[in-house]
Amino acid sequence: MNEERSPLTVSLGYNPINCDCRTVDFVRLIRGEMNKTATSYISFGDPACFQPNSLNKIRINKVDWRDLLCPIISSCPERCSCRERGVDQVIEVNCTSRNLDRLPSLAPMGAEVELLLMDNKLESIENISLLMHANITKLSLSYNKLENVDNVIALPSSLRVR
Are 120 and 147 in contact (CB under 8 A)? Predict the structure, then answer.
């Protein structure tokens, strides 16, 4: 006898859900991307993020994976903010608009690193060797004062050119 199952409803609305790097699997579950059999019998309603402020009131099934971030305090360069993306464990080192006139020192972080240095006062990348031990896969230098890019040949081998 094949019995038709009624969906189980799990109501999660109006909860202060923190949408950060630890929420990736939950988002996958809500979107029905984890266990198709289980999610066909479970309805979660339409929960929304409460935190961080940038995601407040955004429905969890609409959240961009790249926005599921967790702050990293240790080993972050001074005057920068560091966050881990939950979907791919890439570390984003954001030094945008910090009036930097030289490259920050980066400690090895053990994961791929995206270094964002837009809108600063960098005139050269002479001390690019400071970045050689970091696993940098993205380096954004837009809106600086770079005139000489002679050291571009010395960029880390992990860097992907786009």
Answer: no
